[in-house]
Design a protein that fits this description.
The complex is a heterodimer of chains A (260) and B (355).
Chain A: E1 2-12, E2 15-26, E3 30-34, H1 41-48, E4 55-60, E5 63-64, H2 70-76, E6 77-80, H3 92-98, H4 110-118, H5 134-148, E7 153-154, E8 157-158, E9 160-164, H6 172-187, E10 191-195, H7 199-205, E11 208-213, E12 216-221, H8 223-226, H9 229-236
Parallel strand pairs in A: 3-10, 3-11, 6-9, 9-10
Antiparallel strand pairs in A: 1-2, 1-4, 4-5, 7-8, 11-12
Chain B: H1 13-38, H2 46-55, H3 61-96, H4 108-122, H5 128-134, H6 138-158, E1 159-160, E2 163-164, H7 166-190, H8 193-202, H9 212-230, H10 233-239, H11 243-248, H12 253-275, H13 281-293, H14 297-321, H15 330-348
Antiparallel strand pairs in B: 1-2
Helix pairs in contact in B: 1-14, 3-9, 3-12, 3-13, 3-14, 4-6, 4-7, 4-12, 6-7, 6-12, 9-12, 10-14, 13-14, 13-15, 14-15
Classes of the chains: A alpha/beta (260), B mainly alpha (355).
């Protein structure tokens, strides 16, 4: 089963943010969307989550998303926004419970608490959301997303996590934790699409990468196919060396995936 | 990976507390009602009447008239208007995702007032059939339409791409209120003597003119609007995450917004039509309740109705007794209670109101 975006075009007034982009993501894989600032990554995610008006066609597990009721879509995919907002002083566990509204209808706290413990924050359950640091808030929102789509596969249908920069405000340990979590979800048969900034992290965890540049898809394929000097230099407009030797006398941090 | 064993059990503390508050607040409302029936300008007392009833002594005519035609409609109106103001405040705050949004402050009350005044001054131009069909409900319905229009306008102006700017909302509210006030002034100026009498009868920011006519005119709209608001609790909780995320968790956001606006306009319109603008109930009540038992709208809206009713009934008792035999306008009492709370919220959120 797949998520297919076909010839997606999004305009903001006179500006064309996406100019006919195709994306194909398979369940069981982590598909990353990368590209420079303003290349249209979040806009593409906005289209495939039906958040932004677009032309073209997006199908999720074979059904056009624009023809589905919000609650039907919510049972099939959860969305982590780039910046989270919360209006009133809800506690952490109350925020995570909001994810339950759409799906399971479970009234006990087992799923929200397990989701919180997946992001390592179960001891914060009774805290007020507004007291949290930016990174903690981002992880609580991820727990809310997990509570909404707890099982990667249900009724034989894969379910999807659509994540907009899920690790942007996290420290390196939590970046790895969140990426492991996404990988695990995909390994169990679910689909994950993530907008990413960190190319090394993307290379470690993604099976498929789509590189966007100026509203168009420059390249897509496996990390080996896509993360090349040529593609990256063209996309980001600066000189990048893939697998260049470590420069002398400069500390160089290479993250390692725990499961690699 | 974090171990998934040894998960602490979280109490649903605040939710249980909020549910318990339903009962406590209902008792407080009953007690407030008793106090309201007990006190007044004449020597008629609820307690005396209860003793008489128990002893089987018949009531005097004065007692019957005072209780049934003066105090009881006034109490009912206090309950209806208080509940309507508090619930519309809480619902509007949920819609705007901001604890400072209140129909009275952001011009919706003024819009509803304009609707009521249009109905009184220009209602004669309506086709006679429509006039008789609407009857005594004409003025509350017109106030509802005025409130509806201003809420829609306000939301359009202050919300962009699912985010509400507090500064824009408050400033647009000032402009909207001023405009509605100016138009109301023009209408009052062109009104004839009978219409001026009607204007005086309908709205002076008080419960002093309470009558069964007004109670029955306002009750259906208030009951519908408040009942509608009670059904929106879950949706408003989701809306706290922002419009986009509310949609992602499966809410029909457009419908939720429309229904909330209808509910706010209906409750505010009906309240304004019978009592004029009584301020601050819609700010104070939800704020106190959020402090007591959290922001969950499923319980907040119900508790707001109960506490709003009690608070307005008690404010009315104060307004009737503090300078007896004269009456202090109830708006003064609620402003003295409410304005400091508004300023307190503003102070606490100063960093967030990016003016």
């Amino acid at each position: 089963m797949t998520l297919i975006a076909d010839n997606i075009r999004v305009t903001y007034g006179a500006r064309t943010a996406l100019n006919g982009v195709d994306l194909r993501a398979e369940a069981g894989e982590l598909t990353a969307i990368v590209g420079p600032n303003g290349s249209g990554k979040s806009t593409l995610l906005g289209a495939i989550t039906a958040t932004l008006p677009y032309t073209g066609r997006v199908t999720l597990n074979g059904c056009d998303i624009q023809k589905q009721k919000p609650w039907r879509l919510a049972a099939q995919r959860a969305v982590l926004p780039q910046a989270s907002q919360l209006a009133f002083p809800f506690t952490v566990i109350e925020v995570v419970r909001l994810g339950l509204q759409a799906g399971s209808g479970a009234t006990d706290d087992s799923i929200p608490m397990r989701a919180l413990s997946r992001v390592g924050l179960s001891h914060y359950a009774e805290r007020t959301f507004q007291e949290l640091s930016g990174g903690e808030a981002q992880r609580v929102m991820l727990a809310r997303v997990l509570a909404q789509i707890w099982k990667p596969v249900e009724d034989g249908q894969p379910r999807w996590l659509l994540l907009d920069e899920p690790v942007s405000s996290l420290d390196i340990a939590h970046q790895l934790q969140v990426m492991e979590l996404a990988r695990e979800f995909a390994e169990q048969g679910g689909g994950v699409i993530a907008v990413m900034h960190d190319l090394n992290l993307t290379s470690m965890y993604a099976q498929k990468i789509a590189v966007l540049s100026r509203g168009e898809c420059l390249a897509s394929g496996s990390p080996r196919e896509v993360l090349t000097d040529g593609v990256l230099s063209c996309a980001y407009g600066c000189t990048l060396r893939v697998s260049a030797p470590v420069p002398a006398n400069v500390p160089y941090i290479l993250p390692h995936a725990a499961s690699a | 990976m974090v171990a998934t064993t040894d998960i602490p059990i979280v109490s649903r503390d605040r939710f249980a507390k909020a549910r318990a508050l339903h009962v406590i607040l209902a008792v407080i409302l009953l007690m407030s009602a008793a106090v309201s029936l007990e006190t007044g300008a004449t020597e008629v007392r609820l307690s005396t009447l209860v003793i008489k009833a128990l002893a089987g002594t018949p009531f005097s005519q004065i007692e019957t008239v005072v209780m049934l035609d003066i105090r009881l409609p006034r109490l009912m109106m206090g309950i209806l208007v208080g509940a309507a103001l508090a619930v519309s405040g809480a619902a509007m705050q949920g819609l705007f995702r901001n604890p400072l949004a209140d129909p009275g402050i952001v011009g919706v009350g003024a819009g509803a007032g304009l609707g009521a005044i249009i109905a009184i001054v220009l209602g004669g131009f309506l086709p006679a059939a429509l006039q008789s069909l609407a009857g005594r409900h004409l003025i509350p319905i017109a106030a509802f339409l005025g409130g509806w229009g201003s809420t829609l306008l306000l939301y359009r102006v202050s919300t962009r791409q699912g985010r509400t700017s507090v500064a824009t909302m408050l400033l647009a509210g000032i402009a909207l209120g001023a405009l509605a006030g100016a138009l109301s002034g023009v209408l009052v100026y062109i009104a004839d003597d009978q219409q001026l009498r009607d204007l005086t009868f309908w709205g002076l920011g008080s419960l002093a003119g309470a009558s069964w006519t007004k109670v029955t005119a306002a009750a259906p709209l208030i009951a519908l609007s408040v009942g509608l608001a009670f059904m929106l609790g879950r949706g408003l909780n989701g809306l706290a995450l922002g419009e986009a995320t509310a949609g992602h968790i499966g809410l029909n956001v457009e419908r939720l917004k429309s229904l909330t606006i209808l509910s706010v306009a209906g409750a505010t319109g009906a309240a304004v039509a019978v009592s004029g603008g009584i301020g601050f109930i819609g700010i104070v009540v939800p704020h106190l309740l959020r402090l007591a038992s959290g922001p969950d709208h499923r319980t907040l809206l119900i508790n707001a109705a109960l506490l709003g009713a009690s608070l307005l009934v008690l404010a009315d008792v104060i307004s009737r007794t503090i300078i007896a035999p004269a009456e202090l306008p109830i708006g003064i009492v609620t402003a003295v209670m409410g304005a400091p709370v508004f300023l307190w919220i503003l102070l606490k959120r100063r960093g967030m109101v990016d003016l």
